[in-house]
Amino acid sequence: MTQFLTRSLFFSMFIVFRFCSSNGSDEQERTLGIIKPDGISGNYTERIKQVILESGFEISKEMVIQLDEENAANFYAEHSSKSFFTNLIRYMTSGPVLVMVLEKEDAVAHWRDLIGPTNAGKAKITHPHSIRAMCGVDLEKNCVHGSDSHQSAEREIAFFFKEAPSEDAVSQT
Ligand code: CDP
Ligand code: MG
């Protein structure tokens, strides 16, 4: 009888432990990744996607889009007063981009880690294994985007995937 009670107690504790730990550790987060025009024209798309998948992200949505000036300016509105803004808009509208929703636990921070610092030239020295070191060139042409916070990620995902862009500008998978 005592043995039965001990076993039942252990079994109950095991169930409670599994329930608590699965609730705490499996929480998925979403972030927005973009392969910028230089990443696409430099044929880095497949290599970048391979790194994404090998790093445990799921690509839950993706879309190729040619941004126009208005789209790009709205997306980067936070930088509208910066000296680099005009060049940034020219860069982001210079060819198609691949926009992706990336999902995993702690996705925002993990994707920022994986892409490396904004200045791709410096990333080649300080973060040689980062994506920006692999395919970026300098402070502007850094080949990928990553949301900088959970709030930005949700806003940026909604920007691309809840609005309905015109059919001729978009091919969605
Ligand atoms: O993309 P990230 O969040 O790392 O950097 P940001 O400060 O939000 O800047 C957005 C984008 O503007 C960068 O990814 C660069 O392409 C560009 N940029 C630039 O051309 N010159 C700067 N001094 C800073 C950013
Ligand atoms: Mg940013």
UniProtKB/TrEMBL annotation:
Coiled coil: none annotated. Residues 28-168 form the Nucleoside diphosphate kinase-like domain. ATP binds at residues 36, 84, 112, 118, 132, 142. SMART domains: NDK. The active site is at residue 145. InterPro entries: NDK-like_dom, NDK-like_dom_sf, Nucleoside_diP_kinase. Keywords: ATP-binding, Kinase, Nucleotide-binding, Signal, Transferase. Residues 1-24 form the signal peptide. SUPFAM superfamilies: Nucleoside diphosphate kinase, NDK (SSF54919). It catalyses: a 2'-deoxyribonucleoside 5'-diphosphate + ATP = a 2'-deoxyribonucleoside 5'-triphosphate + ADP; a ribonucleoside 5'-diphosphate + ATP = a ribonucleoside 5'-triphosphate + ADP. Belongs to the NDK family. This is Nucleoside diphosphate kinase-like domain-containing protein. It comes from Hibiscus sabdariffa (roselle).
